[in-house]
Fold this sequence. Notes:
single chain; mainly alpha; Arc Repressor Mutant, subunit A; 2 domains; about 0% strand; globular
Amino acid sequence: MSGADTVHRNHLDVLFRAHYRWLCTYLRRQLHAAENAEDIAAETFAQLLQAPSVTAIREPRAMLTTIAQRLLYQRWRRADLERRHAQQIDVEVATSPEDFAHLSQTLKRLDRSLQRLPGKVRSTFLLARIDGLTYPQIAAELGISQRSVSAYMSRSQALCDRHSANPILTDKRSA
């Protein structure tokens, strides 16, 4: 570990000790759930740990709440995505608890795969599938050509097809 890494970790240690409980309390008020608040607070500090340097923070609580809010929005968006995707799936096929657990695991793998896609490819997919925008609307929204939208959708659809080899995820509307 280099000297800069040690300084960075020491600074984060001071920040953690000074603000972790405050951040958890803040998040509990936002979420009304202690375990989720602690998870998000921990993830907030984990993101700071991965940052190159945080030694010049003038308003640590403002920065911590900004990061935590982003994490909350990501969590809410992911939950919304899972809900919407589950609504599109023929849930009659997945009636047992084991099927639901398998479906949840598959959706989580799909989400992780989508997170690895480049930003515009992922945004194109989400705007089409979640927001229901047309290719021209997506092109205008992202400032790209309709041809790029089509290519990005093909790329993301191939990813979804790999995940939908699972019979639980087969969308009967496309059959």
